[in-house]
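Entry 14. Ran structure prediction on the chain below.
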Amino acid sequence: MKKFTLTIILFLICFYLAGCTGKKITPTPAPFPTLAPIPSGTDPSVDRVILSRDKDGKTNTSTFKAEDEEIYLLFEASNLPENTQVRSVWYIQEGEDRENKISEFTMKAGENINSGCFNLSRPSDGWQGDNYKVKLYFNDKMMKNIPFTIELNLNTPEVVSNETPKVPHGTTSFIEGMYEFYLKTDMTYGNKNSKFTVWINDEYVGFLDTDTVVNISSKIRQGENTVAINTSISEELLSPINLTIGTSWRGKEMPLLIHRSQEKGEETVKYKLNIPDTSKINHPSVKEDYNLKLDMTYGTPKTSFNVFINGYQIGIYSKDVTVDITPFIKTGQNEVKIISIVDSELIKPVSLIIGSFRWKRWATVMSHSRKKTGTDTAVYKLTIPDLSRVKKSVTDSTYTLRTDMTFGSDRTQFDVSINNMQIGIFNQSTSVDVSHYLKTGRNLIDITSDIEEDLPKDVILTIGIEKHGGWSTLMNYARRLKGKDKASYEIVVQGESLAMMPTDQCTMKVDMTFHKEGTAFTIYINGILAGTFETDTSIDVTGFFNKGANEIKIVSQIPSDLVSDVKVSIGAYRNGKWATLLSHGKSRKGNYTDVYNVMVK
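Output, structure tokens:
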């Protein structure tokens, strides 16, 4: 099914629509487009409904053009009970009796909110049919079934327009400004004495004790804004009450501040919100969409991340949220600054990740987490490659980078590059497909690690192959002790020529059972660095070998005499049995270099 985007816009955000306002604060509504009223009674009824090309309802039509970006449904109702679920379901008509649902969205209405606006956005590959319909429901009762058509003009020659063309998706020129702002409260778990009182730029906004949506566009300005929120809770709540300030921007709802409260008492918290002049963003564009995702499951209501990208404040968040940050990301180096506040030690970390879908799979490019009490500022240098220049994967196998950060602390991280292209900065366990960054032959893996304190167990980074349902480790890097470190590895990707490839599936095993700190093997196969190993490891090294004779060089570092040997073995399974091709062991203090010749079939 083609992907359609459906966005809901409350009328208090759509300035020109009839008044749909929050309790306690009632802006004066603009007149709704003139339509013959539908008689209403004591039951909920639809008074007016239209389809339009614009959110202010200037055009009332049932016929749209192929180039129309949005289709709006605007409605007014009467006698809606509080918390009525108003739902729009959109269909494409396939034949007389068959309709295919393409999108659905729901808003809460009733009490003082009796009008609204839904909109369906044109998919990236265009409208896919002529005949459509949208059904409007109040709770589970269908109130309106509205057919409409889209004239695709498949046989009409393209008309050359003198208008300024729209900027293609992914560019950062001519980004629209942020002009429409809302304040929304979720008082689901509050009691009758729970309330928020809000001031913006020292101007009183309102006293809010129920679920409320307020248009605050006239109170928010470009640049720095101060937001003061006084919370009064008469007894501790089962779950927090929430207040969100956000913007309706680029056809999406973008939260800028999420404030939560749960504990008994009264307090006032002040925030600084810097609203960027987004119309001036003009930097090298990215080719894919980037999202900021927060997991605040284990945080307290006062745990928060304040996020800045390339000098623009994205928002202050204390709750799970996903934000489209594409316009703020540029090709090349980006600076991500995160101010973390943790008011008490957490059971598990709260986390933030930035990533995108690359080659149909989610790819994390940066992760950040905090668990310990305190306030700190972290700055990351994140280089985003021009993915249009990344060639098609050279192999049918899937090469995956995995990090296991289970025993890491707040500031434990790996910064990883492949062939001088930054893959990401990782503070959490993750898995990333790196197949497209590899080339036939030798590939350089650079890792910079930062361990803020000695860890109880290793944090680990591996690269391996997923093929035929199995996993083969090609590279393994582990750290446990405090300090910074840089390491380089090479992995070999075979080309299409099979002439020199061995039939043996070769595995190297490192046994460090009796090691002491500083014990390590550095191993070269046919002059190529296979890696430096300080922990038990088993990796597939087939790619380093040729048929026939192969040279293995092992540099051993033994800082003091050991109880028993630490060992390296290389072997292959032949006829279902393990065949050892090389065995190497050391236990006496010293630095050694040994060279072996190994025959491979």
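The longest strand covers residues 99-109. Will compare against last week's run tomorrow.
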